[in-house]
Design a protein that fits this description.
The chain is of the alpha+beta class and 150 residues long. It has helices at 66-77, 89-99, 110-126, 134-149; strands spanning 8-11, 18-23, 27-32, 38-42, 47-49, 54-56, 63-65. The protein is globular and about 45 Å long.
Length: 150
């Protein structure tokens, strides 16, 4: 995967994103990505790892992992999202449609789109996107050559 979100978490009721540092007896030590402050997230905190979050698509059995959506955003827009300073709902819908055209409009709410844009802004500043492995690049090149022959 081009970005590793396994150690990045969102904590319910707390703004921002956090890097999981290490477990403790009563919870998990987390570090705020924005200011590097540390705290203990206890069992009463609802914590979601970004690696486990996916976005619904119109295919009922398919979801797209957040890391893949972030990669699509990164490839298309880099660090500059096409949103104004105070985006409207229509801007958010247009933005997600540009990176994930088959998203499920009934199950993906504008509030989810706002989180997606906010999280991407934070992640793109603090976590590096990596290039694909050499094996994956070779597979992509072979597939491209096969298409040209066909």
């Amino acid at each position: 995967m081009p970005i590793d979100l396994r150690q990045v978490a969102a904590i319910s009721g707390m703004s921002g994103l956090y890097r999981v540092v290490k477990p403790t007896r009563t919870g998990v030590i987390v570090e705020n990505l924005a200011d590097n402050s540390r705290l203990v997230a206890q069992a009463r905190h609802r914590m979601s790892l970004l690696d486990e979050i996916s976005i619904y698509t119109t295919d009922e059995e398919t979801t797209v992992p957040l890391a893949e959506v972030f990669d699509r955003i990164h490839q298309k827009y880099g660090n500059d999202l096409p949103l104004s300073e105070k985006p409207t709902d229509a801007e958010y819908k247009s933005f997600i449609e540009s990176v994930l055209p088959d998203y499920d409009e009934d199950r993906v709410y504008v509030s989810d789109m706002k989180k997606l844009a906010n999280w991407y802004s934070i992640v793109s500043k603090h976590i590096e996107f990596t290039k694909e492995d050499a094996k994956e690049e070779a597979k992509a090149e072979k597939a491209a050559k096969a298409e040209k022959k066909a």
